[in-house]
Amino acid sequence: MSQQLDSLDIKLLRMLSVNARKPYLEIARETGVSGAAIHQRMAKLQALGIVRGSETIIDPASIGYTTCAYLGVFFKDPSKYDEILEGLKQIPEVVECHLTTGQYDMIIKLYARNNEHLLSVIHDKLHSLDLGRTETTISFKEVFNRQLPIEESHIN
Questions:
Q1: Three-state secondary structure call for residue 39
Q2: What's the maximum distance between 2 C-alpha atoms anywhere in the chain?
Q3: Is residue 1 a contact partner of residue 50, using CB atoms and an 8 Å limit?
Q4: Which positions of the chain have pLDDT values less than 50?
Q5: Per-residue pLDDT tens for 118-132?
Q6: How far apart are CA 18 and CA 2, in angstroms?
Q7: What pLDDT, on the 0 to 100 scale, is given for residue 153?
Q8: Whole-angstrom Cα distance, residue 132 to residue 149?
């Protein structure tokens, strides 16, 4: 995939990784190409799966979800993976799910209004999925969250 990127693609990705809402015409002016060329490049990057859309990020605390937790999940019966995954998709508080190696079978990230709500989500929603057990880590504060660096070496 990286062989299909040129220096304009890299510039475009860098700019959008800093500010995903940057207007295409502004990007065009800064890169010295037409707005149509930027639209075409974006279509190419999306078709290649390099850019997977854009999103509005809502601060969970601003809408009352002040507790962020990561749960290491142990499967009781690994053959029920698909059922468990579908069940997790039905729990709106679960925002990420990762199949992992190492200690856990899966790690999930969820938000709750408070610790009492977190306990309710774990006991009433997660444990109804017939998991083996979970280990919970509460995040006090997200220190940073960033995109990967976009470097010229990604062209080759």
A1: helix
A2: 57
A3: yes
A4: 1-2, 156
A5: 999 999 999 999 899
A6: 20
A7: 62
A8: 38
